Amino acid sequence: METKLVVVDNETPDAGIIAEAGRILRAGGLVAFPTETVYGLGGDALNPDSSKKIYAAKGRPSDNPLIVHIAEMEALRAICAEIPEEMVQLAEAFWPGPLTMIVPKTDLVPKETTGGLDTVAIRMPDHPAALALIRAAGGYIAAPSANASGRPSPTLAGHVMEDLQGRIEMILDGGEVGIGVESTIVDLTGDVPTILRPGYVTEEMLKRVLGEVQTDPTLMQKVEGGRPKAPGMRYRHYAPKGTMSIVEGETTEVIARINALTDEAAAQGKKTGVLCTEESIAQYRADVVRSLGSRSEMQSIALHLYRALREFDDEGVETIYAESFSRDGFGQAVMNRMLKAAGYTVIQA
Ligand code: AMP
Ligand code: MG
After folding, report:
1. Using CB atoms within 10 A as the burial measure, which of 72, 107, 197, 324 is most buried?
2. Which candidate, 119, 13, 132, places its Cα nearest to that of 70?
3. In ligand 1, which atom is closest to the CA atom of 153?
């Protein structure tokens, strides 16, 4: 299949382009599209065959459920068996925006979309072109991140092309996304609202609305056995092809240790990479050194993380050492993705 790449204006998308993409989705095809978090790989959420195609195109295990994207609050009634009060409060505070909520589903949502679960994850993206596409598609788009399973999520349309060209009908190119890491996921099916994946909307922000909120304790450490609540957390994710380690500690010691480690790896004939910041980039001597931006701007660090991981792949980097970041606020989401990319390998400087 030939994949059509079309540039779209994020704020005022061309009606003809949206109509064409909407027709593809209604007919059961797949369209990748920009959102404020990362690019999504969209299919009609209410069509089981579309969801099967999404899993096939990504090479994603079919028990890893998809997030259903909606464009209006009224869309909830048809797909939620229950609309808890917390959902209404959080939607008022954060929708449209980078927050996904899990609630019991109705029969309208096929099990193919929810990976066999009786619950459904729902989000309303803060992105006019994405919202227009959802409406054109009939109101419900199932969309995981538009990367091949196991690769870092796409923050540019070019990343989607790399991974999915020839496997999907269309890609809408809205340029670089705004946030760069996936939405916060909060499970509303238990006694206490529980964060299953950290994102731009932090625990503190959720607590300001709900009072009580907890974070799944397995988020920042390796899960040995057991069954994590968000099935996606079982799989290796966000991974570069090289072996990555995070080096933690006081800045000057981190820099010295990373240089020693890359020298060691280079002596063994490995191509080396360093993931760092504007403040430290001049001090490294690895083969490929990438800054994520200023350490004082967590938003920049988040936005550039996946792109940098893909660049290490493009350059054939085999051993990567990364500086570490604060786990406070939005930093928790960034460190969660970095820890996963590193297979939870952390070295104390
Ligand atoms: P992605 O679409 O790549 O951002 O991944 C979606 C994430 O949402 C995966 O990690 C899933 O495990 C999680 N998810 C989606 N639906 C549910 C659900 N019903 N219950 C728990 N986790 C879910
Ligand atoms: Mg993903």
Report:
1. 197
2. 132
3. 3
